[in-house]
Specification:
With 282 residues, the protein is an alpha+beta fold. The protein has nine helices and nine strands. The strands form two sheets. Strands 3, 4, 5, 6, 8 and 9 form a six-stranded mixed beta sheet that branches.
Length: 282
């Protein structure tokens, strides 16, 4: 399946699609100014706004040059009112191992094979505001959750190693996420050390998550990681105060960081580092 084939398959199954960098191009085509070397995963557009379900736009995007198809997870919904979440196993069978350890089963669902493991697409209640937080699965699951303001490289994409992202079964739709998974993702973790409140050092505090997201989006090249760290510290302190949810902080700030060109891995590391630095458990 070519990238164009994959993108067309995705929109015909109602998945919101946009283009990412393709490792077959001489230089990275992502929005960022400097590529971190992780080719094939950098959005070429502001994906939270520039995704499409239009077949004509897909032909335009994937017909004018090499692009990897990717799915804007938060933009995908289903006829029953549920929304999309993607369980990203970093090795084959990782999520099944978690299920067995809990005495549960992992459902047969839409699966896309990746370079290291697989992406399992599941349907979750729209009212459940999931981000990228693993909840009580942190440290127990060798992988990540992609929901809300997140994306995944998908069917027809090519990994930097040359591995093709392939569907396990084109006829199998996303299953309803099992209750045990939702319970685990929304579980509140007990902090392992005291949380401290924020005292503004410059006499000014940005109180809303939207303000912190905009601060990251306005940051200049060369200072973006520092801006993300500062914003994440302020956000985690609001979490400690009970004014923000940890899942929302991770989803919104990591999404903003990816939009300005930081790699997903780097964004996760910075937000996690801010969590540790402020003494707040993510």
């Amino acid at each position: 399946m070519t990238p164009l084939d994959g993108a067309l398959w995705l929109i015909r199954h109602n998945f919101a699609v946009f283009g990412c960098d393709h490792p077959g191009t001489p230089n990275c085509t992502g929005l960022h100014k400097t590529c971190d070397g992780s080719r094939g995963k950098h959005p070429t557009v502001a994906f939270t706004r520039a995704w499409t379900l239009d077949e004509r736009k897909i032909h335009e995007t994937f017909g004018r040059g090499l692009r990897n198809p990717a799915v804007a997870v938060g933009a995908c919904s289903f006829p029953d009112g549920t929304r999309l979440a993607v369980v990203d196993s970093d090795r084959v069978g990782a999520i099944e191992e978690v299920a067995r350890a809990l005495g549960e089963q992992w459902p047969a669902t839409m699966r896309v094979w990746t370079a290291k493991g697989h992406h399992d697409y599941v349907r979750v209640p729209a009212a459940l505001k999931l981000g990228n937080s693993l909840g009580s699965l942190r440290g127990k699951f060798d992988g990540d959750i992609r929901a809300g303001n997140a994306f995944v490289v998908s069917v027809g994409a090519v990994h930097a190693t040359g591995v093709l992202y392939e569907l396990e079964d084109p006829e199998r739709p996303p299953a309803v996420a099992p209750g045990w998974l939702l319970d685990a993702l929304t579980a509140q973790q007990v902090p392992d050390r005291p949380q401290r409140r924020h005292t503004p050092r410059q006499g000014r505090e940005i109180r809303s998550l939207d303000g912190l997201v905009n601060f990251v989006l306005r940051s200049r090249p060369g200072s973006r990681n520092g801006a993300l760290y500062w914003a994440a510290c302020r956000a985690w302190e609001h979490v400690a105060d009970g004014h923000l949810a940890a899942g929302d902080v991770e989803a919104e700030l990591i999404g903003a960081a990816i939009q300005i060109g930081l790699s997903e891995a780097e964004a996760h590391r910075t937000v996690a580092s801010a969590s540790r630095g402020t003494g707040v458990s993510a």
